[in-house]
Specification:
about 30% helix; 4-stranded antiparallel beta sheet; 6-stranded parallel beta sheet
Length: about 240
């Protein structure tokens, strides 16, 4: 359910509602808009619980969220989601360009590609270092060496870097060197990985899986959002 606060609700009143949500074993997610605050109460809630919030100070109304995805729905967040990454805005009116090679192959290749991406006016550099391949005999990426080359390319051009993460064990290695964690199409429903990138609080680029519906993509995003990670890019 979604608890919509009055426009004049105080911080103390919002905190009281959040406490009440958590006392019922639900998770509170706060969305602060320009005019009012909305609190999403996520979990196995019952219709009778709605009455427990209606008369709390500062509460305007309580409405159910009909979609299976709660935090990724327009019901919970009617305004566009925006966040800043290295000086530019994602989710705003401008078009953000992320470009680069499918795989980081060697130092010369990624540095020259980074310069070309920068000169072309793109905002971020993309390059894979852990590569999921259909064949076990295909090039699987440079792994940690590739991360170091991406870090060098970032230092040389000032471009933030995006690369794919394939397992939760790779996340601690990546965080100091990578600006955006990409979850590839093959891993869109790797729920262990989705939990882990959500917990990292790092920006996430989530790709739609092959043959996946839009609802399934949004449910995958819900896994990330449910950990309080609001910086999710869908593609």
């Amino acid at each position: 359910m979604m608890i919509i606060m009055r426009t004049d609700a105080t911080k103390e009143q919002v905190s009281r509602v959040v406490d009440r949500v958590e006392n019922f074993g639900l998770t509170a997610h706060i969305s602060s808009g320009e005019e009012r605050t909305v609190i999403g109460a996520v979990g196995e809630s019952r219709p009778l619980l709605m009455d427990q919030f209606l008369h709390l100070p500062g509460v305007d109304r309580v409405v159910p969220i009909s979609r299976p995805f709660k935090l990724a729905s327009r019901e919970f967040r009617p305004q566009n989601s925006k966040f800043r990454l290295d000086g530019f805005e994602i989710g705003g009116k401008g078009i953000v360009m992320i470009a680069g090679p499918c795989s980081v192959e060697n130092r010369e290749q990624i540095l020259s590609a980074a310069v070309a991406v920068k000169n072309a006016g793109a905002h971020a550099l993309r390059g894979g270092v852990f590569k999921p391949r259909t064949s076990p005999y295909s090039f699987q990426g440079l792994r940690e060496e590739g991360l170091e080359l991406l870090e060098e390319a970032r230092a040389a051009t000032g471009l933030p870097v995006v690369t794919e993460v394939m397992s939760k064990e790779q996340i601690p290695i990546m965080l100091p060197m990578v600006d955006v964690l990409q979850v590839g199409a093959r891993n869109m429903q790797n729920f262990d990985l989705l939990h882990a990138v959500g917990e990292s609080q790092h920006p996430v680029l989530l790709k739609r899986g092959m043959m996946a519906s839009v609802d399934e993509l949004l449910m995958a995003a819900e896994y990330v959002l449910s950990h309080g990670n609001q910086r999710v890019i869908l593609c």
